[in-house]
Records
---
Amino acid sequence: MVKKFIDKMRGVERDVIQAPEDADAPFYAAQAGEVAFFQAAYQQRLPVMLKGPTGCGKTRFLEHMAHKLDRPLVTVSCHEDLTSSDLVGRFLLQGEETVWQDGPLTKAVKEGAICYLDEIVEARTDTTVVIHPLTDHRRQLPLDKKGQIIDAHPDFMLVISYNPGYQTVLKDLKPSTKQRFVAYNFEYPSEEVERGIVGKEVGGMDGELLRKLVAAGRQGRNLKDHGLEEATSTRALVYGGQLMNAGMAPLDACRAALVAPLTDDPELAEALMEIVNAHFGETEAEPAG
Amino acid sequence: MTENEALLAIEEIRQHLEGVSFVAHRDASQVLPVVRERFGAEAALDWLEHARDLFFHDREAGKAFIRNTETAIEACHCLDWVEQAGAFIRWRGTDKALEAFMPQVGEAIAELGAEGEQAWFEIGLRWLGRHLESGTAYFRTSWRELTGGKGSEGIEELLAPAERLFQERRVALGSYIAGAMRVRDLVGPDGLGQWVRRGGDILQASRQRGEAFFRLESPESIGLLLEAVPGYRSRDHARLLQLLQQAWFGRSHPFGEAAWIPGDGRPLADTDGATIYLPVVFPDRDEAVAAVIHVAGHIELGTYDADAIEALFTEAGMAHPPVDADQRITWRPLYAAYGDELFRFQLLFDLCEDLRVDAALDRMVPGHLHRVLELAGRRVPPGGNARPYWDLALASVRGALAQDTLDERLRPLLGPDARLVHAFRIANRLFEASSELPTPDMADRDAAYLPGRGPNASRPVYPRTPGEGEGTPEEAEEMQAARDEDGAGQDESPDVQEDPDWSIPPEQTGGSGGRIGSGINTATVVTGTRRQRTTEQVGTGHPEWDYRDQAYKPDWAWVQEKELDERDPEGVSAIMAEQGATLTRLKRALQMQKPQRMAPKRRQLDGEELDVEAAMDFVTEKRAGSSPEPYVYKHRTPQHRDTAVMLLADLSTSIMAPAESGEGRVVDRLRAGMLLFSEALETIGDQFALAGFASKYRDNVSFYPIKEFGAGLDAEARATMAGINGRLATRMGAAIRHACARFRHVGADRRLLLILSDGRPADYDDGGDPRYLHEDTRMAVKEAVDKGIHPFCLTLDPAGSDYLPAIFGPGHYLVLDNVNDLPRRLPEVYLRLRSA
């Protein structure tokens, strides 16, 4: 608690490596065997690849697991300009001196954290090469610029996420990279689990509303590949619930959270709204607000 | 004249009549006292004089006049019409017109008033003067229908175009009037004018076609009417309705068009167990949605499952009827047992089955029953014999929603385990216990359905196997064998009974033939033909993968390169004009992309600008003692040779099918899509090639290069694209292998093969085994990937997600379920692929 308070006082500046706090682990409801899978992989320190659609809980899962395993978590969101030195580190000028600054990956390797490279396909190809030696029996990180090799901390673990979608056809991970990982395929959770998640995340939501919200969202997923590139995510459902909690009429909240962000196609939006209407239809007659 | 004189004159005429006609004399004597009593002797004399004159003019006319007198007086309590009837004497042969005029006149006076009736009469008289038959047709048409509820003005409005038509083109009123009334009732006077103008044009081209147009017998006339009739057009909203099916049931069934024309009863949706047939127009959106959900619900909830139908026949103690040539089954023998009470039973059976399906649907689609109820509340309940059935159905829905007491006999249908056969059983029980219900005719039957519902077995159905696709081939074979057996036993027995319901011959209901994505008809075409063919090895030979042997068949598929010889230069400008807005938007998007494309390459050895970040790294590393390479420049250069793409279009027959929604055919979208795609690529400056393919047998795979890599996009290539037509089948693997060879001399970092298809790989000689060409295509894709070419498939086949992941890999395909979007989406998809 005190630490949190101090963090607040300090503002946003925090070191990337943070030992998990003593509080409860971030909420995560297991869908199937992913917790056991991750624990096994961690025990053997195998690099892990998490696959699955947006907003299905990959990042939350990792936060949860890191807490559970009592390891710090370093998350790096990859983008197209991310180079290997952004991961590994670089020399900085300080006065007349040059100082080596470790990148997040190097820090994680040294301190035995779980390093999570989110959407790794987005990064430049040279980054994937850097992680190769870390993912096999060597467990080493070469620092070419310093002419050093760092042996990974025994607790270090590498996790990447990867979302197979059609935009990345030309940018798929190389098979040689892929096959270095053990992978887990995330799907959207089952209805019951999802209801639990949304209920817990939103907090204090009316049971009937919650049931309808989740049912409507899940129905909408049937339209994936029929014009919808990304289906309604659990996160979107949580947002919808939060809007309802804040006093928005269910129909409007769903439009704002489940329909409008997903599509610009009027017919698709109409179809999605039709689903929402079917679930929340009775409340339509009442004045909004 | 005194009364006595009048009576004397009357007596004279009567005697005269008696001498001429027994019947006339008798009828007149009967009516005369009535007239005299009510209007006095003088009026009676006047009446009798007219009767006599009419009779001598034309015996039938006179008789009709006398016979209808009482009714007319009864209706209007006056004799104003006597003078009018006398006017019919002016022409010969007006007896039929008078016969039609007389029964109507009283009512007309009573309701239109003297003036209105006079107008009605005078218009008719004018027509009689112009053309006897037209006048007769006029009077034969009910005055009430003529007015369209707007009095004599309504008649004027309706007939004004007819006068012009008659004068200019000699179109008789008889060919015009019935159709015109229907058109006016549906689309109003403005629509009527439009319809008449179009008809006039057609008439000029061909008299026969023109008259058929006005009689609403020609497809162009019906088409025009359909376009104008107000309501919710299922064609325009096909995509939404498909999406809804997809959302609720996880899959969607294709739509066909029901043979309904406006003014012809109610628009009802139905199905053959595979396709949902929708009328062109629904009264409103809610009814369309309810109908689609309801009919799809029947398919999903087992109304057309093979075993459910079988159980039905077992229950009825009847042998399973043979499937027809299209593998369809009819329920006709079931209904035949009910003889004259057929429709009564059918309505009850449908009521039970609809209740079962709607109740189950209500659990899947929240609020479905409420919607049905609400829709029914909006409609005017039907009258006559249909009313009791409508009420019964409504009560059952209310009962299911616990708003009303439910007939306990119907209760079992609400359970999740209820099946078709239960509905049949309960319907039989209801049928026996409800002899007090009237016997409806066909029009009553159609009127009796609640909104969204309709006859469940109006056409032969393709029986479904539950969990279709999961069954092992052996099971399917067994079932087929069983069917054949049944069929053999039944074939000789003649059809039990003619059923007036069965007006649709099987040919018209159509198979799965021309629909998008269904590819070619398999099996039936194939057997036999393959053996007779000798294979000619012309062109380039490609291996083909046979999954059964897990081996390649060397030089199996032979590809010939051919030129597409249909060119359509005018089509280019037409498409460009039509797609102008899209093209402008696309070009603007490309302009926006340009700076991004010119984004500097960072960390270069040479360039226009310093890369500050790289320079910093360089300096610091140097200070730190290492000797880094001086990659410190940014270099801006158009990345011309970045991506090379080949668009390979599937030109099989199925692209000639009409588009699922909107006007025109799939091929129109394909042409536009290819044109826009090439324009976009030309603007960007990426290397690209265009080609099409089609096949018939393994030795006759045609590859049509439209534009090669490196060649310019010239008028000829454009004209070729605008003239594309569909032919033959889809041997995709061979085409992919052939296309890959085109990339050999292309120097690009990324090489993309964009395949545009509308159905699964299939050919005439695949022996009905879809897996064979699937597996071969999958191998061809793998070979391409090995060569560094990324194949990506864009498909118009809604079922694409079933087989494309296996062939192209997840994420390497896209199902475009709205064909109208193709022109817009094709370039977009490419741009997204390339910018990834």
---
Amino acid sequence: MIEALVIILIKIAVVMGLLLLAVAYMTWLERKVIADIQVRIGPDRVGPFGLLQPIADGIKLMLKEDLIPAHVDRVIYLLAPSLSIIPALIAFSVIPFGSSTTLFGLLAHPVTLRITDIDVGILFVFGVSSLGVYGIVLAGWASNNKYSLLGGLRSSAQMISYELSMGLSVVGVVLLAGSLSLVDIVGAQQGTFWLLGILPIPNWFVFWQPLGFLLFFTCALAETNRAPFDLPEAETELVAGFHTEYSSMKFAMFFMAEYANMITASAVATTLFLGGWLGPVAPSPVWFLGKVFVLLFVFIWFRATLPRFRYDQLMYFGWKRLLPLALLNVGVTAVSAALWG
Amino acid sequence: MEIALFAGFALVAAVAAVLVVIQRHAVYSALYLVIAMVALAGIYVLLEGYFIWIIQIIVYAGAIMVLFLFVIMLLDIPQEDVLWARRDWGQIVAAAALSLVLLVEMVLAVGRGALRGAQAAPASAQDFGTTLTVGRMLFTDYLFPFEITSVILLVAMVGALVLAKRQFK
């Protein structure tokens, strides 16, 4: 009992620690990659290749003056950054990032590489991430600023619209795996999908559900407020959107929440469509982290490549393009599963 | 442990529900309603209804209340200066009477359940409340009520659209 509790606590500490570290270094990666794409050098002053830049940024943000404007709704204004970052971190608790390990024989019993596995895993991720929108909406309202309010309104409308298609896009995967548990979904992707000469194509759901994967990734971009869907903080129109009035560490918390959400979205996409931790030779966490890294790179690549949508285009695209496609995907998958499943 | 958790969730839900009513600003009311919803979800976990728990969070806390908040902000409802600005006695009496009926009903329901408790105890199987069990029950024993509910929701949606569109003509 005590041992199990200690193991869980250690797992939580390790996962949260690594997640926050990954969030910090995502900022470095993003600046470097975008600099490369735009033929610039990017941060290179602090440490080799600018590798200590995130640390310097963190110290700077903590030491900056923490400004609370006079006209804000104090309670909600102070609450909003936490409401934004807490769901982003909690969602990671059901993500399986490996099968199990004894840490090279150090432990007597193998330890599973996930914090927990629940029966409704994928729904849990959706539920918790849907709570994340409160942080943004309330920050926009409590700031008592026109730009902030517009950012908050945009984000709530956008997140509700795209959540619908996102939920429908994973129904195909759930139908194929026959379970909502993320561990079972990874387990269902074992084996070979097709033998291309001597090259075995793995049985990942991305090959069964190519449309589902595209829909999921598009909606994930919108849900995390990333370009080309970054209208809640469109700097050319809204100064900085919902976090215009925030400074110092409270601003940093919104920033961290956005990056943590990106990592969670990539991890969920990896688990649902890219076989999670499955892969030959290398240890399972390496495969998992590698796939997540590729998806995160695509996130950054999109930002450097695509211009922002106009607001009416965003709504038109979400409701009249993505939603019918997602419904079609569910229908086709359900009929095929009933006929051949 | 279970009793302590239940007491905690129930207390939070009840206090939050009262706070919903006595706030002067609609945004705060909505937020307390969110807290009440999440506390109710906690009680569902104690009842081992894991599927209902997460659906409660996704649908009520995650979607419906966000829409409430959206509308409140869009209409920019101002803060009321006094809590009891308009004291409408007819309304108060009607509300009290309805609450009393609801209370009596609940006491009766709980009381009868407690009396029958011994023989009507639920078959507390291992998979009670899981997605599989809930889904199977929903599409077999409770198929008719389930479909009727979806029709009722559809009627409400169509009705709202008709009312909204008529104003624009």
---
Amino acid sequence: MGGESLFLLPAAIFLATLALYPFVELLRMSVSDVTVYDIFKAWPFIGASGVTSVASTFDFREAAVNSVIYVLLVVGVGLGGGLAAAITLWHGGRMASFTLAVMVFSWALPALISGIAWRFLLDPRGMVDNLLGQLHVGPIYWLVDGHLPILSVALVNAWTVVPFATLVFRAALLDLPTETLAAAEVDGARPFQALWFIILPLLRPCILVLAVLALVYAFKSFDFIYIMTFGGPGTSSETLPFLSYRLAFQLYQYSQGAAVALITMAVVLVLAVVYTRMVRGEERG
Amino acid sequence: MSRTFRPRWIAGAGTGLLVVLYGLPFLWLVLTSLKTDTEIFASGGGIIFQPTFENYQSVVDQQLIQACVNSAIIATGTTLITLALATPAAYALARVKGWMLNIGLSAIIILQITPQPASLIPLYRVLGTWNLLGSQLGVILADSALLLPFCIVLLRPFFLAVPKEVEEAGIVDGASKWRVFWGIVLPITTNGIATVATIIFFIAWGEFLYAITFLTDQTQYPISVLIASQIGLYGIRWSNMMTIAVVASLPILVIYAFSHRRLREGLALGSVR
């Protein structure tokens, strides 16, 4: 005891000034009336009225619904795609290794670059609609038409989650006890049966950890919306983090922006806690 | 044994699909940067064309080179500060137990779930009082604060994997905790630390929200801001945009080419634990 805590000190001081203090300021901002003029001055206190008033707006409800859709798609497609890809590349040789290298590169590219590339590909004159046109489908206005933009952006975001999930699932698959799999094979299990009754239960811990990570990541995801639709057309593809950004930086409603950010975080926190409790309770039997 | 569970043709078709799904977008980005404005939306696939370096000639100028230098400064500075602070902290969090561990991990979780825009205004105030608005150091500090919790989360498993006996041998020899950390633990975790450093560098290279908000002088903009600042405009000039995007991905491509094997192993190892 004693020695190690000194190791924590530099990071703790740094985070206290540049991360925890801003977080406390965010809390304070959500209960104050902050305008452009007094950003560097004292903030008049208004209590929780900012939080409650913003939560009842149409924009907030729209963004909340979008956020839920977005998170479900990113987590579902990200994990499902990752598992499918991991099984595909399970014991592959050179080709699997090459495919993984290409996939992980897409994960390593910043959201800024993959976002702008996909925005170009999904342009009505772009490659995707061009290919669909060859099949006499479309053009589909991926980033413009009705509720499609939020789905398109979520799928692109899921596209970047898949490589990471693939790596983790593949490592877990390679760790599976070979005797169990061999026994299932001897017993004549079909591929789907083996997947459902043997492989998935063994991967459970891994799936749960990834699900929490993806959930937290997807809820606060901001870059892809900013780059691909900027919340538009109109406000139709805004998620909660983007709404919080727009309130603060385009409408200068700093308190409301802070309130939306805090509500988002509270939801993530509650979901993560409930989820881990559920998982633990289940494991205890 | 996986042969039966995963018929050969499915594996083959799946692998092909993955290569197309993940290879094609970046390949298309590169091809587009070699096309003229009129060719990029030409119908019929657009695979056959006369490649030209016109876009590069018009895009690569003093400003772009300066932006790449700025990106390098910001990303390197952020990586150095983040790693210097996160390494000892992650080691400590892999060794302490009880209340200190609980407080540490809770703080990290809170910071991890904070959406980045939420910290913009508070950080604007903090950096303003320190006179660091409009300076790259301000952006480096903000980026480091953003990435430090994530960096600790990534590093901790590597220290948890160090066997106790290795360290105990050092303690028996009478070495101080710092000497044990510096002389014994760090050398055997170099690979893991390098992996995490690579990831932090990549993220810092692509960060644009802090940079676009805290920097005022165009000559200080990193390349990410050059891309992000054109987003809101109507009628993006795609040939130019894709060319800048290719330039911005080059450093990542080069670093990735040298480190992808380690990166893949490190990622899989770190998160399963």
---
Amino acid sequence: MIKISVTSIPVEDQEKALDFYTRVLGFIKKHEIPLGEHKWLTVVSPQEQSGVELLLEPMAFEPARLYQQSLKEAGIPWTSFAVDDLEGQYQRLCDLGVEFSIAPREAGSVKIAVLDNTCGNYIQLMQEL
Amino acid sequence: MPSKPKTFYEMELERVYQKTSFRPEHYLQIRQSKAFMKKYHTERIELNDLAAVAFMSKFHYVRTFQRMYGLTPRHYLRDLRIAKAKTLLRQGISITQTCFDVGYESLPTFSTAFKKCTGLTPRAYQKRHQSNLE
């Protein structure tokens, strides 16, 4: 069986991203392995610590930077995370100063909201209805 | 205070969902059946029960559910049961007890479904979790 073990998101600053993904979003750091001038830096959900790891990948490739900027300008999320209670998370994150480009709204069989991860990307939070 | 202008993404979302073929009541009907499965997934559930909860014919129900959620109600129910089984096995509950507690009536059917979803037999899953704890 093939499983998804790691997926990645490009970030401008790995330390800043680690702070946002752990302190603000609530993930847990799993791997931090020095690799040249950067690190292999991954976080996981506290609920699934042996599940899919999110690699906070340093933005070190110019065409990727252009792609990232184009997505951001269009408001298109780089990826989506699942939540059980979107309204609760929205309030919690707003209280922590997180900015949303889309407040919670229904979209078919899901409810979504889109937040700015402060590292160059939008992230969609999604609650299945 | 003026509201923020909508992003391209938000406008596209609105455009796409305006074109959706589902009527609003269909979403509510299907959600009712999902809530029913969440509540009663440890008991015997027949497709007839689910279609009745959604006020649809069996055929229309399965087709609509699959188009909305990308999997059949049967697979959705299986995933709910296996998620619950993983929790029970991690708590050290026996495989036979877990099988019945999550709504399966046959151990081989449970083991096959579990392996299909997790890649491991219930025994291997429980063993791996216990060795991780040690």
